[in-house]
Design a protein that fits this description.
The complex is a heterotrimer of chains A (about 400), B (about 230) and C (about 375).
Chain A lengths: L1 H16 L5 H33 L6 E6 L10 E2 H8 L6 E2 L2 E2 L1 E12 L6 E9 L1 H6 L4 E5 L8 E5 H6 L8 E4 L2 E10 L9 E4 H7 L5 E2 L1 E5 L6 H10 L5 E5 H45 L1 H9 L4 H31 L3 E5 L5 E5 L4 H28 L2 H6 L2
Parallel strand pairs in A: 6-11, 8-10
Antiparallel strand pairs in A: 1-13, 1-14, 2-12, 3-4, 5-6, 5-13, 7-10, 8-11, 9-10, 15-16
Helix pairs in contact in A: 1-10, 2-8, 2-10, 2-11, 8-11, 10-11
Chain B lengths: L3 E14 L2 E14 L3 E5 L6 H8 L7 E6 L2 E2 L5 H11 E4 L11 H6 L9 H14 L15 H13 L5 E5 L7 H17 L3 E5 L3 H6 L2 E6 L2 E6 L3
Chain C lengths: L2 H9 L3 H28 L1 H5 L4 E6 L7 E2 L1 H7 L4 E9 L2 E2 L8 E5 L1 H7 L7 H9 L3 E5 H7 L6 E6 L10 E10 L10 E5 H7 L6 E2 L1 E6 L5 H11 L7 E5 H12 L2 H30 L1 H9 L4 H33 L1 H7 L7 H28 L2 H6 L2
Parallel strand pairs in C: 5-9, 6-8
Antiparallel strand pairs in C: 1-11, 1-12, 2-10, 3-5, 3-11, 4-7, 6-9, 7-8
The chains are: A alpha+beta (about 400), B alpha/beta (about 230), C alpha+beta (about 375).
């Protein structure tokens, strides 16, 4: 058996060293596989980036309360009275005797996209300092937070990146009021960086929504307190709201679009892989054909059929793995951190960046390897079965 | 009108390989009258095949004149040469050079695609040519289904189907056994005798030379002529 | 026999290789056909919008309401022919995920603004006179298996009823058939009066006002005029053509066009390499035969034309297979696709573009081998064994 291994390695080595003789043909296979891998990886990185932007926004110890039946913040309604009732409920954390609760407005305003100059929907959140404190990981990178009671805005980093006119110091008109951007915040690339924040009371009066909010957020005493809060909310007929953890809420949001991107990426990649497979088979069959005499010679001096099979398969795998690596490197260089935006369930723009991870790279490389395996398998069988006599005797 | 098929006037052929200039032949003169049957013999590298290529207009001379029926051939451009070849010469090669994807009849028909003949006329010409080489019943066979001798006879049929005046043969028996080779030589002789073709054969085969009216020995680019005694 | 036979015989020479090449070409054109058709569906709104139709929304954002009185004020402007309100209802049927593109509108005015909608007279009368009536696009009706006369409970994700419930009962009075405008075939239209009577807020408001002008030439000045009329009011407006409005909305979903372009060009780049190299190799294998053909008197241009015909035939055949399969697949899944993206279908323009690309592919992949066929010297061709 040991000699099988040695024979296989010898033949594989010869095959791979002879690739330069079929340079263009081999190169076209490598590039075709690289392109397929790059497409797959870019879709996976896009889906992953979108999912991360949403999923990492949610905390398990924050509960979000929305109108029964509302699947996103924009469709929810909550009143000041409801907020007051929720603040007294069990499970809500307190600081200095006051509940950690944030009743928030969510309205949509227009921004102008840098990439296409068209109007896009941006979420303007009416919020309070307590509300900001409920969000972990918020960091002001430039300027400061708005002064309560003023027409000041603090904006997410991604908004500044993707939309025109949100730099600190810039002003914008919304209806009859003029607002000034006073700060930029960062939140580790989450969906929150796609938001504009202003004082809740000011937003209420500017948008004629006195005493009305969209959602209520509370800090839980611990993630385990959620069921107790849910029960308390359900027991009070005056509070017609539904509580869920912020983590669950964002996970649900992520599923909607992130799933769609991924659902598109895989079929596309597989269809393209079939095309690349046709190319790989072609290359390998012609490799076997041009090496016919050489293979027959080896067989004649005692090399086995199986090592011939393995040697040919190794050549195909070599080409596909090289192609896969080229594709992974190219896609990583081009798409890592690539900024994009899409419409969320809230009807607003979610800005996210493509995230290439080692895990996704491995997935993409597996696709390349599968193409190589299948693309090498059938030609390898042909190589192993080549008749010795005919190939040597001819010409 | 000259009744010479070919006339070579002070023809030289040289090519440059690396720093060396290799002379194949120099100031060669040669007259081949119409309906002649010439065998050209000589050791490997003596320039026989190059000479044949020059006659067939598929290789250029370095200097000198090549005349066919009194007309210059060496000055024709590629397109003119293609048309000239299609009309005037038929080639027969050592390895037959049939198209593997075409049947015997289709192989023979190939040169007729360059003529204005309709398909019915073409088929008639093909049948005649195949009958002449004794392969009328093999028209639907592919080259791989035929013996070497049969393939060579198909090649001859292809060479004569458009009724050229001259047949240029490069080692036509080189790949055949004696019996088959003799059959092929008989056909060439018949074509010369009965159909007034000028036949020029480059060969190593003394038997092939015996069929010819005369034999030219080419050695280091110089002819030594031996006319066959009738 | 003729030249064409020679070409097809050459293509059939290595059947496996030809089949593999055809698969690669097929895949690329399948992707092209399918993705371009999807893109066409995404852009259907901006493509099908009439040139004389304009949309006015709140300047802050189209989700912020405008007073319903603006409809009359706009209609009264010179140069404006018809105007209607259109309020998002946020409707869904049975499951919040099965959302409907549902608007509350003034049915009479709506039909004036969209004159291409022709309802059967009895359906039209029924809808106009039935306060709880809805007119439903063909695609929505098909998807939900609704038919004329059905009583349909529809919920809203935005509004609730004064009585606390979230569900409205409607009568399906009319079905809109307008194949050229898939958006119109995807809407559900309720009476604004019924909307106003039942909702707890947003009475006397509308999300958008859609109107037609006497001529597209007036559009620019009318846009400015409308917005100027409401400037410095509590509800400032932004007016645009329906096409531009739709385009901006679709662009928010993402740069679909860029994604399609990238994927399609990637696929094309891959087959260009695969087919191009294989053609070069195939012709190189035939060097000697080409030399023989030239010896027989076939000229360089004839040989080149045969090679180009060969690559062209491959490309066109593969493309026809790919485009044809894409067309069939789209047609077979039309009912399902329409509900997702109305207007997904392969247009003649897509087909023509696909065939155009096939010709380019054929020319490019045949170019190098055709050139070497043209230049091939007989002596070296015959010498190469």
């Amino acid at each position: 058996m040991a000699t099988f291994g040695r024979q296989s390695i010898a033949i594989a080595g010869m095959n791979i060293r002879s690739i330069p003789q079929r340079l263009w043909m081999s190169l076209s296979t490598v590039v075709a596989i690289a392109l397929v891998v790059a497409v797959l990886l870019s879709f996976l990185a896009m889906a992953n980036g979108f999912r991360k932007a949403q999923a990492s926004a949610g905390a398990a110890d924050i509960a979000i309360l929305m109108r029964d039946g509302a699947s996103s913040e924009i469709n929810s309604v909550a009143s000041r009275d409801q907020a007051a009732l929720v603040g007294e409920m069990t499970g809500v954390a307190r600081a200095g005797g006051k509940p950690l609760i944030s009743a928030e407005l969510f309205v949509i305003v227009d921004g102008t996209s840098r990439s296409n100059g068209l109007r896009g929907n941006l979420p303007l959140r009416g919020i309070t300092p307590t509300g900001i404190a409920l969000r972990h990981g918020i960091r002001i990178t430039e300027g400061r937070v708005f002064q309560p009671g003023t027409n000041e805005l603090v904006v997410g980093r991604a908004v500044v990146r993707e939309f025109v006119g949100f730099e600190v110091g810039k002003t914008l008109r919304l209806g009859q009021s003029t607002w000034t951007v006073v700060g930029v915040f960062e939140d580790g690339g989450t969906v929150r960086e796609s938001e504009l924040w202003a004082d809740a009371g000011v937003v209420q009066s500017a948008f004629d929504r006195q005493n009305f909010f969209q959602t209520i957020r509370v800090r839980l005493t611990s993630p385990a307190a959620l069921p107790a809060l849910k029960a308390a909310v359900a027991a009070d007929p005056r509070v017609q709201l539904l509580a869920q953890s912020e983590a669950d809420y964002f996970a649900e949001q992520a599923k909607a679009s992130g799933g769609l991107i991924q659902a598109l990426g895989w079929p596309l990649a597989i269809i393209m892989a079939i095309g690349a497979l046709a190319g790989a088979l072609n290359t390998m069959y012609s490799s076997v054909a041009t090496r016919g005499t050489e293979i027959a010679t080896l067989r004649a001096i005692g090399f086995g059929g199986f090592p011939t099979f393995v040697g040919t398969l190794a050549e195909a795998l070599f080409l596909s793995v090289v192609g896969g690596l080229v594709g992974v490197v190219a896609a990583s260089l081009i798409f890592q951190g690539f900024s994009a935006k899409t419409l969320s369930a809230n009807f607003t723009q979610v800005i996210f960046t493509f995230q290439v991870t080692p895990g996704l790279c491995v997935t993409a490389l597996i696709l390349a390897t599968v193409v190589g395996l299948i693309g090498g398998f059938f030609p390898a069988i042909r190589a192993a079965r080549l008749p010795i006599v005919g190939m040597l005797g001819d010409q | 009108m000259s009744d010479f098929s070919f006339q070579l006037r002070k023809v030289s052929k040289r090519f440059v390989k690396g720093k060396e200039t290799i002379t194949i032949f120099d100031n060669l003169d040669l007259d081949i009258p119409a309906q002649d049957y010439v065998a050209i013999m000589g050791p490997s590298g003596s320039g026989k095949t190059t000479l044949l290529n020059v006659l067939g207009g598929i290789d250029q001379v370095t200097s000198g004149e090549v005349l066919f029926n009194g007309q210059r051939v060496d000055t024709l451009n590629e397109g003119q040469l293609s048309r000239w070849r299609a009309a005037n010469v038929g080639f027969i090669f050592q390895f037959y050079n049939l198209m593997p994807v075409l049947t015997a009849a289709q192989n023979v028909e190939l040169p007729l695609l360059l003529t204005k003949l309709g398909s019915k006329d073409r088929r008639r010409h093909v049948a005649t040519a195949l009958d002449l080489v004794g392969l009328g019943d093999r028209s639907k066979h592919y080259p791989r289904e035929m013996s070497g001798g049969q393939q060579q006879r198909v090649a001859i049929a292809r060479a004569i189907v458009s009724d050229p005046k001259v047949l240029l043969c490069d080692e036509p028996t080189g790949d055949l056994d004696r019996t088959t080779a003799d059959e092929v030589l008989e056909i060439l002789a018949l074509l010369n005798r009965e159909h007034s073709k000028t036949v020029i054969v480059v060969t190593h085969d003394p038997e092939a030379a015996n069929h010819a009216k005369r034999t030219l020995h080419l050695n280091k680019g110089i002819f030594v002529e031996r006319t066959k005694l009738a | 026999m003729n030249h064409a036979l020679l070409v097809t015989k050459n293509i059939g020479r290595r059947k496996l290789r030809t089949v593999l090449l055809l698969i690669a070409i097929f895949i690329a054109f399948l992707l092209f056909g399918a993705l371009e058709s999807f893109l066409q569906g995404f852009n259907a709104g901006q493509n099908s919008a009439a040139a004389d139709r304009l949309v006015t929304v709140n300047k802050i954002n189209f989700t912020v309401p405008l007073p319903i009185s603006y409809v009359d004020r706009i209609r009264d402007l010179p140069g404006i022919t018809h105007a209607t309100s259109q309020s998002f209802f946020g409707g869904f049927y049975q499951d919040p995920k099965n959302f409907l593109l549902m608007f509350a509108t003034d049915p009479q005015a709506y039909l004036q603004v969209y004159p291409k909608i022709v309802l059967p007279p009895e359906q039209r009368t029924a809808w106009l006179n039935d306060r709880r009536g809805i007119a439903v696009g063909r695609i929505v009706a098909n998807k939900n298996h609704w038919k004329i006369g059905d009583h349909i409970p529809i919920s809203s994700s935005i509004f609730s009823r004064a009585d606390g419930s979230h569900s409205w009962d409607f009568n399906l009075d009319a079905i809109i058939n307008l194949p050229e405008d898939s958006q119109r075939e995807s809407v559900v239209l309720m009476h604004h009066k019924y909307f106003d009577e039942t909702v707890t807020f947003a009475r006397d408001t509308t999300s958008m006002i859609v109107f037609t002008t006497a001529s597209p030439k007036l559009n620019d000045s009318i846009e400015k005029q409308v917005d100027a009329m409401f400037a410095n009011s509590p509800y400032e407006t932004s007016t645009d053509t329906a096409a531009a409005f739709n385009k901006a909305f679709v662009a928010q979903v993402g740069n679909i066009a860029l994604i399609v372009t990238l994927v399609v060009s990637t696929a094309f780049a891959a087959i260009l390499l695969i087919v191009g190299n294989t053609m070069v190799m195939a012709i190189r294998e035939r060097t000697r035969e080409i030399g023989v053909l030239k010896t027989l008197g076939f000229s360089g241009p004839v040989i080149s034309a045969q090679i180009l015909a060969e690559s062209m035939l491959l490309a066109l055949f593969g493309a026809a297979l790919g485009l044809g399969t894409a067309w069939l697949a789209l047609a077979a899944t039309r009912r399902y696709l329409e509900a997702l993206i109305p207007g997904v279908h392969m247009t003649g323009a897509i087909l023509a573009a696909g065939l155009g690309w096939a010709i380019v592919l054929g020319l490019v992949t045949g170019a190098v081998p055709a050139w070497s066929g043209l230049r091939l010297r007989i002596v070296s061709a015959l010498g190469r064994r």
